[in-house]
Design a protein that fits this description.
The chain is mostly helical and 66 residues long. The chain contains 3 helices and no strands. Helix 2 (41-48) crosses helix 3 (51-63).
Length: 66
């Protein structure tokens, strides 16, 4: 899958939040044509090397208000 990543990713509400940025980019790379990512937070934690709790926290940050 191809996804554009803009430099503004590091300027907005995710600035300085490396776990959130990594999970966001992971989700972009793993999404299908409809934007669905069919993995659990535990799999995200394992594949990114950040572990379950950090991945779950990053996902909750992404799900929150901007």
């Amino acid at each position: 899958m191809y996804a554009k990543v803009f430099s503004s990713l590091w300027d907005g509400s995710m600035a300085g939040k490396t776990d959130v940025q990594l999970v966001f980019i992971f989700l972009l790379a793993r999404s299908d044509r409809e934007g669905v990512v069919n993995v659990t937070p535990q799999v995200i934690g394992f594949l990114t090397g950040m572990g379950d709790q950090r991945a779950i926290f990053a996902l909750s940050e992404l799900e929150g208000q901007d």
